From TrEMBL, chain A:
Domain BFD-like [2Fe-2S]-binding span(s) in chain numbering: 407-454
Presence of keyword Flavoprotein: yes
Taxonomic source organism: Streptomyces prasinosporus
SUPFAM superfamilies the record matches: FAD/NAD(P)-binding domain, FAD/NAD-linked reductases, dimerisation (C-terminal) domain
Cited Gene3D superfamilies: BFD-like [2Fe-2S]-binding domain, FAD/NAD(P)-binding domain
Protein name: FAD-dependent oxidoreductase
Domain annotation FAD/NAD(P)-binding: ranges: 6-289
Assigned keywords, A-Z: FAD, Flavoprotein
Source species, domain of life: Bacteria
Cofactor: FAD
Amino acid sequence: MTATHHVLVVGHGPAAHRLVERLRAHGHRGPVTVLGAEPRPAYNRVLLTSVLDGTLTAGDLELPAPPDGVRVRSGVTATAVDRARRLVRTDSGETFRYDRLVLATGARPRIPRLTGVRTADGRLTEGVTTLRTADDAERLADGPVVVLGGGVLGTETTLALLRAGRDVTLVHPGPHPMHDRLDDTAGALLASRLRSAGARLRTGRAAVEYRPGKLVLDDGEVLRADALALCTGVEPETALARRAGLAVRTGIVVDRHLRTTDPRVHALGDCAESGGEVPGHVGTAWEQAESLARILAGHDTHHRAGRPALRLRAPGLDLACLGPPDPPGATRRITLSDPARGRHAALALDGDRVAGAVLIGLPRAAAALAQLYARDLPVPSDRFALLLGAAAGATPARVELPDAAVLCHCNHVTKADLLRAWRAGARDLTGIAAATRATTGCGGCADDVRRVLASATGGNSAP
Amino acid sequence: MTRTPRTLVVVGHGMTGHRLVEHLRAHDRHGAWRAVVLAEEPRPAYNRVALSSYLEGRSAADLTLADRAFLTDPLVELRTAAPVTGIDRRARTVTTADGTVTRYDALVLATGSRPFVPPVPGRDLPGCFVYRTFDDLDALREAAREGLPGVVVGGGLLGLEAANALRLLGVRPHVVELAPRLMPVQLDDGGARVLTRLVTGLGLRVHCGTAVREIHPAADGRVGGVTLTDGTALDARLVVFSAGVRPRDELAGPAGLATGGRGGFLVDDLCRTEDPHIWAVGECAAVRGRTYGLVAPGYRMAELVADRLLDRPTAPFADPDTAAKLKLLGVDVASFGDAHAETEGALEYVLRDDTAGTYAKLVLDPEGRVLRGGVLAGDATAYRTLRALTGRELTAPPDLLLSAPGPGGPPPPPRAADAA
Ligand SMILES: Cc1cc2nc3c(=O)[nH]c(=O)nc-3n(C[C@H](O)[C@H](O)[C@H](O)COP(=O)(O)OP(=O)(O)OC[C@H]3O[C@@H](n4cnc5c(N)ncnc54)[C@H](O)[C@@H]3O)c2cc1C
Ligand SMILES: Cc1cc2nc3c(=O)[nH]c(=O)nc-3n(C[C@H](O)[C@H](O)[C@H](O)COP(=O)(O)OP(=O)(O)OC[C@H]3O[C@@H](n4cnc5c(N)ncnc54)[C@H](O)[C@@H]3O)c2cc1C
């Protein structure tokens, strides 16, 4: 592979943006062309909720301009790939030749099959919007909003709209928001955070019909919904690849070189399915961009999937998910719950490695665990300190009972009482029992008494 | 001493009645008191806590609490099989079933509890048992046959002990527990899950969240089966009730003594009834309205009253330790302190190892420094240490404490960080 190929990229989201930047950095010298369907330069999609809450404008999200020599065509949609001739056709009527084609078409919102969300011609009804693009964020209607779907996006959207002072109801079919990632405890915590931020929650409910200004739920409740935000999941944008005859399952299937079934065509980011997974995280997109840039620049390398963390950060809420919700290899599970302070940690370990974790309100633990998880490093032995975010070693490390500790509870005999009896000459259980009554109740303390005797005798030869 | 001793009458020769007299005699240098102990059971006090070991081969003599010195003490008079039937507070006398009247200067009620038998049809059929005394165990042993179907009503500490006893007698019992989990008072769901797995492994069949609706007779007139409220029908030739206890306060009403809201002779934190001559200790005492079903608080009450009778200084009864460990071979389950994290701002730290089948929960103060309680299941090695540390600052990180051998045991190896 040479570094002078013409690389044509379809799609101009975060994956494409990172790819072209890294291509140059890794020494690719050939021409690069990027076709982006959206009418604006690449922007940071992850920060869209900041547009919703009014802290940023869509323009603020714009990503740095691509390196010199990269041609970007915004507002141009690729409509067909002619693999035999290595041509891509677009809705602008142009055709683009390629040596290497990269599909970075991302994902598109899934529209639920719900009466009234679409007009007769298939477009979204007035008042209904998805939240994937900057246009979407600017389009959201005024008035009371219903957010449909309480996954990460729905949760983040709800919090953002509340910050903007909007009246928000979150409707979610699961028992609590993000139920596929969070256990009941964490889910309840998240739900209470949303409520205290001002959201109305309708969990365990499905929407059945949208009428202008209203959303009807399956139990008959009618919610005011001047705006309806659909956060009902995304699906990889694969139409172009499919039409081109490339292998597609959930996403466009790629191998460890991020190659589709055509060796000249690659795919990455939210549209790509690698090792059976379509993570839909920007972290994955970035890692793949880095690998693919090296590959296209002629380096002999392949992509190794990393282990990105999912973070949801909003004022008053810090949530991190590592790994799958129920990691298969996990043998040990550690949880820390602190309902009074709204903190929760669930850590799954495979041996001493992190197999998965969910953390709420524990930013230091989240940061530390994300590092350990990403690099597959062992977790230190003081897990309690790790989760609490305290410095390890804050507690002394000797298991030594204080003298006042009660050892025989039936008869209320302390360690000090035993030592006193020992000094008075008691050397065995019978002697101790006669002197203190220890061991004469349930007998459960016999081993402890023996141990205290042994250590007294061992550490102190003369009575 | 020339003065004639005053008479202390103790009603009940159980664990606390015995402890009271023993403590009194140990500290009564001048022979101020003579104790008359009136016992309902036909034998002197025994270690009821260790009762189940009777079915594992220990003899009644092994378990007795009354040694020779006690039985031959001239200032102790023990009358067995002499249940008290009435108290005449004005005359300061008690009457026993045979009509004997005994005068007292001080009267201590130490009548313990009786097993609670829920009012289900068929509960009086032959084949129904309780599990509290030697006589109960003798009757059970008499009736048990290898392979007979059995049901234990109650999945608490004692119910599981009873179920294990049935198992030792060759019966493979069902355990029926009304609460959604076994040992509901002591354990949380995580601990109970491990416990259920362990006792199922021993052959017990566990039914939680349901109760006995009816006990049916077989053709021979003895117990033949049990129907549960969820509709389940179980074969049963033996039924053991272990669904909690009720304080034995039947002497209170006729004598005009007050009882607590949930039964028991009502006493203050010095174990005094409203009658200055009458006290109550052990499971029959409702201290400020609360009863205790463990021996340690009973012992504390007994010693307190004995000290008072001798005018020795003593602190009032304070909230006792209610830690508990299941006494079943191979089933390591325990709870201590604030096991359900009910104290203000409590933190919960849980370690679960599915490979090893263990569960451990520590409840800590808001700063994570002071141990408040916990639950251990599958491996309770750390129980003794943790119980002794309850209410105190942790002496080591929780992860280390949970893997420590026991109080005063060999110190764990230094951590890598310390060595470096
Ligand atoms: C509001 C929001 C918040 C998010 N927060 C996070 C987060 O906190 N963490 C996280 O990891 N992920 C988050 N994500 C997901 C993250 O944005 C995606 O993983 C990331 O954008 C994927 O990048 P991509 O380039 O593969 O796809 P996309 O960003 O979807 O970009 C694909 C682009 O290709 C264009 N395109 C599609 N087809 C064609 C065509 N035929 N011709 C030309 N152009 C085409 C599309 O219009 C689009 O602009 C969030 C997503 C949203 C919507
Ligand atoms: C199988 C089993 C296992 C147990 N395990 C534990 C354990 O592990 N840890 C623990 O702390 N506790 C345990 N307990 C509970 C413990 O045994 C009791 O808390 C303790 O025995 C209470 O002592 P007591 O003196 O109050 O009552 P008891 O020991 O019940 O004694 C009361 C006595 O008074 C007699 N009596 C009643 N009425 C009269 C009357 N009118 N006249 C004369 N005599 C009367 C009764 O017959 C009885 O002998 C267990 C109990 C059982 C049955």
